């Protein structure tokens, strides 16, 4: 089945006696055992599994063409589980502009137990040269946050496979509708489901999908079920509900995103626009090869300094000045001040998540704010 159809039907796993067309929210933490001591309903205890989480995991696994999925209580927890699954002293190759919250885990939680290098992953030779005998993970993020750099999933997968190193792709900015890393050779895909999957800025979550149920995956499932950083049934319900419209929301985000990028690109007060859908984007050809469309995420440099950028975020009216992305409402954010003094993000950079309002209203708001 096609993604539009899977997104609607893959979460309807259970036939209830009341005949619900939409699956109910199962709040029970514990489930009846049968006479033989087994679990006739397929669930034992809700940290291990529950009907709403299984529905979510089944849906996202199908949308990403994987064998299995593990849902967590946040996107960051996916990173935590991946790093916890590695043997001590393993080496990780990560992107230089890695999502700052996950980069922070490496720098502050795993700094004594793991080794890591943050490199420019658009340079394939640099990736090859960075592989060490103890490299146990290549982590990529594409398109990246906040510079929208695009890395070649297929080429990096070849490099990783040749050395038997697992490749994980944070595909949050693309959503499973626009990009499927497993089909390009990645071993595991990650999404912060707080973003496009949730789509309404009202639920926090993360999910990993694996190409194969191998030994690494067993360790990740154990961390999920024994560690217990799992989403509540209500969160899983909200996500499966949202995912039903994901394909159509992504169409709107992409359509609006393209028009906003074109508008910003010709604006005299804009120094540069970072959007993979623009022909001027340095990795536009790679983006075209591995993405079906280019989403609603972009960033741009306001002409001038940090103060000039602040002026713009303080003048917008329709856009909300807030962090996060992928919701129906348009958001704008000064990234440098969120990321803190160690940030390498340009001080005049603004990131925008183009929402699903009418594009003329979105552009009119940017026009009045940019002057
Ligand atoms: C938001 C985000 C994360 C972290 O997800 P949370 O749900 O906020 O924990 C990871 N990677 C990317 C690219 C993100 O945008």
Task: Give structural notes.
This protein has 14 helices and twelve strands. Helices cover about 35% and strands about 15% of the residues. It folds into two domains: about 5-245, Type I PLP-dependent aspartate aminotransferase-like (Major domain) (Aspartate Aminotransferase, domain 2, 3-Layer(aba) Sandwich), CATH 3.40.640; about 250-370, Aspartate Aminotransferase, domain 1. A seven-stranded mixed beta sheet has the order 1-7-6-5-4-2-3, sandwiched between helices. The chain has a five-stranded mixed beta sheet with strand order 8-9-12-11-10. The model has no long low-confidence stretch (mean pLDDT about 95). The radius of gyration is 21 Å and the shape is globular. The chain starts with a helix and ends with a helix. β5, α7 and β6 (about 190) form a beta-alpha-beta unit. The longest helix is centred in the C-terminal third of the chain and has 20 residues, at about 245-265. The structure holds pyridoxal-5'-phosphate (PLP). Pyridoxal-5'-phosphate binds next to α3 and α4.
**Segments where pLDDT lies below 50 for 5+ residues?**
none
Largest sheet, in brief, is: 7 strands, mixed
Cofactors and ligands present?
pyridoxal-5'-phosphate
CATH topology of the largest domain: Aspartate Aminotransferase, domain 2
Q: CATH top level of the largest domain?
A: Alpha Beta
Backbone CA Rg: 21 Å
Total count of helical runs of at least 4 residues: 14
Number of strands: 12
Strand order of the largest sheet: 1-7-6-5-4-2-3
Q: Choose one word for the global shape.
A: globular
- Give the helix proportion (percent range): 25-40%
**Succession of helices and strands:** HHEHEHEHEHEHEEHHHEHEHEEHEH
